[in-house]
Amino acid sequence: MTKEEPMEQEEGNVASLVFGVQPGDGKFIVNDKQFDVYFPMLDHRAALLRPFSETKTLGLWDVTCTVKGGGVSGQVGAIQLGISRAMQNWEPDLRPTLRSGGFLTRDPRVVERKKTRKGKKQERASNGSNVNQSIQVLHFCTTACP
User: Fold this and answer.
1) Which tens digit of pLDDT belongs to each residue from 28-48?
2) Average pLDDT, whole number, for the chain?
3) pTM to 2 decimals?
4) pLDDT score of 6
5) What is the CA radius of gyration of the chain?
6) H or E element in which residue 140 lies
7) Of the candidates 53, 97, 47, 51, the residue with the CA atom closest to the CA atom of residue 72
8) What does the alpha-carbon distance between residue 87 and residue 97 come to, in Å, rounded to a whole number?
9) What is the pLDDT of residues 58-94, one digit of tens each?
């Protein structure tokens, strides 16, 4: 039996996830690819397997998920949270271990909104005096240095 749980897409939360977790032999599929092919960086793979290793259930669950939006790290965080919630639903005894590891807490940070009459976030024009000082220092080094 597979549990399908769509992650709620809250304001600012870009990565959304639909997945299934069931007891099995450790298969991990992300967007129809093996997770080590979809996430080539070792840090991301380790983060995905951390809920299993903390609860000592590595290789006992099959995970199939579809994730979209956000960056790679955001997708890893969404999958990790979804796995932890599904494991807690299947086996409520795992909740204290998952809670103490911080796997059931959603990252509350969101992208800052764009302010009017500025670039992205709060870009400002560079200060002209700083530019002139750096040019003077560069000129001094080229003329005074042998």
Assistant:
1) 999 899 999 999 999 999 999
2) 77
3) 0.69
4) 46
5) 23
6) helix 128-144
7) 47
8) 11
9) 888 888 888 888 888 888 988 999 889 888 988 999 9
Copy the structure tokens of residue 46. Answer: 């380790």
Alpha-carbon separation of residue 59 from 24, 52, 56, 123, 126 (angstroms): 8, 8, 9, 47, 54
Delineate the domains of the chain, giving CATH numbers in brackets: 3-100 (3.30.230.10)
Residue type for position 68: K
Q: Measured in whole angstroms, how far is the alpha carbon of residue 130 from the centre of its chain?
A: 37
Paired residues of 29 in beta bridges: 34, 64
Q: Are strands 33-34 and 28-30 parallel, antiparallel or unpaired?
A: antiparallel
Long-range contacts of 5-13 (CB under 8 A, 24+ apart): 5/82, 5/85, 5/86, 5/89, 7/78, 7/81, 7/82, 11/110, 12/110, 12/111, 13/110
Q: What is the dihedral of CA 27, 30, 45, 1, to 10 degrees?
A: -40
Spatial distance between the Cα atoms of 31 and 100, rounded to a whole number of angstroms: 29
At a CB cut-off of 8 Å and minimum separation 6, what does 31 contact?
A: 38, 65, 66, 67
